[in-house]
Specification:
With 429 residues, the chain is mainly α. It contains 18 helices and two strands.
């Protein structure tokens, strides 16, 4: 396949979006204050509306389980885009992870299934790297092609492998695999029970904090702990090592990196393959922890949501983790008494939009301020006129949150300067 494309201008000519030429870095104390403010707002919503499930341990536990695959997909996107390769094929790599993870998991053990899922995602990443880095195919076209190929591949082989022989006798079908064994979950004894007893009193803020902490220390999969460690490792490798500096330089100014002796192609390949492995791990989490089986279509667009979480997090692990947590929380709402809980959060949305409107008007952004105020008023009318939210809207909650968050955070984003640009070896000579 031959793709013709014109060489892109040097990265320095590309404009940087957001702020006054730099990105805002949140310190750890500021992050804690933001988390405390969000928890305080949720406590007020729970107290006013009576929707106790908003901050319950069960809701937080479900949100954590929903956030992990989104966060891992976003982490894959972060590795790839920091090296200058847009990876919209994360969804397809997650699909490969769900399939290979479940396929190996039910035949052997779930941890070998996890490894198989990672390898499946890495194969998708390798294909994307060959297309974009070596042959210079447009990154978006390559990613979409991988998504389509992954869906077709898994659909075909699911019919071939899961619908006959031993797999069929153990519960397999053309659209799902036989169940795999569970991955061990851990609970901190004593602390979990104490937090649950505090939560049951429904004290303002205190019980809500107990519910959040209880969800974090109760029945946590070991694979969730692995995912948290990967976030820490990613930050350390990319921002605290010479290897990470070279990799990020490929996404900022590959011409300058090459002039300093960096093999840009090698670093891009490494980043995109790791990206696929992260997405594959997220897919394996879905098939081995969330449901214990492969199901056709079970990724549900989480690869795209992971990409959105990465953008929301400004291409940094900490912001990505916060974005994944937000999207995971919204995703969990539709699984647990969604109509009542989502209806309660409409009130929180009204307050947030009213605050944004006031801020925009203060900054003399009259159009944006007026739009925010009108939307806030419409949602307030909706909240006052109803007692619950229709099921159709509840199921769409994660995607609505994705669009809303991206639209509100777009003006503070700063992507890598050479992200998505076609680069050819020797371009700087």
């Amino acid at each position: 396949m031959t793709v013709t494309a014109t060489s892109t201008p040097p990265p320095a000519a590309r404009k940087v979006s957001g702020g006054k030429g730099g990105r805002t870095r949140l310190s750890f104390p500021v992050v804690l204050l933001i988390i405390a403010g969000v928890l305080l707002a949720l406590s007020a919503v729970r107290a006013i509306t009576g929707a106790q499930d908003v901050t319950s341990a069960g809701q937080i536990s479900a949100a954590l389980a929903m956030a992990v695959p989104i966060g891992l997909a976003g982490l894959g996107g972060l590795w790839s885009e920091r090296a200058g390769v847009v990876n919209i094929g994360l969804e397809g790599m997650m699909i490969l992870g769900t399939f290979f993870g479940a396929w190996a998991g039910w035949q052997t053990n779930p941890w070998l299934g996890v490894l198989a899922g990672v390898v499946g995602g890495m194969l998708g990443g390798l294909l994307h790297a060959v297309a974009t880095v070596t042959f210079g195919v447009d990154h978006i076209i390559s990613g979409i092609a991988i998504n389509i190929l992954a869906l077709g591949f898994t659909t075909y082989f699911a019919k071939l492998w899961f619908n006959s022989g031993e797999a069929a006798t153990k519960g397999g079908s053309p659209k799902q695999s036989p169940p795999a064994d569970d991955i061990t979950s851990v609970t901190i004894p004593g602390l979990s029970d104490w937090l649950h007893s505090v939560e049951k009193h429904h004290w303002f803020f205190v019980s809500d904090l107990a519910g959040v902490l209880g969800g974090i220390v109760t029945n946590v999969s070991l694979l969730t702990i692995v995912a948290v460690v990967l976030f820490v490792v990613t930050f350390f490798v990319l921002w605290k090592t010479a290897f990470g500096l070279r990799l990020r330089s490929c996404g900022e100014n590959p011409v300058a990196a090459e002039s300093l002796g960096v093999n840009v192609y090698t670093y891009k390949y490494i980043a995109v393959i790791i990206s696929g492995g992260m997405a594959g791990l997220g897919g394996a989490f879905l098939s081995l922890v969330t449901s214990h089986i492969y199901n056709e279509g079970q990724t549900g667009g989480r690869g795209y949501i992971g990409l959105a979480a990465m953008i929301f997090g400004n291409w940094r692990p900490g912001g990505l983790a916060m974005g994944a947590g937000l999207f995971g929380f919204a995703d969990a709402l539709q699984l647990r008494n969604g109509g009542e809980s989502v209806h309660a959060l409409l009130l929180l949305l009204v307050v947030a939009l009213a605050g944004i409107a006031a801020w925009k008007l203060y900054r003399k952004s009259f159009v944006q301020g007026a739009v925010s105020a009108v939307v806030a008023a419409a949602i307030l009318v909706w909240y006052l006129a109803t007692d619950t939210v229709p099921t159709e809207f509840v199921s769409a909650t994660p995607y609505v949150v994705t669009l809303l968050v991206l639209s509100l955070s777009a003006q503070r984003l700063r992507m890598p300067k050479a992200d998505g640009m076609r680069y050819r070896k020797g371009q700087g000579k």
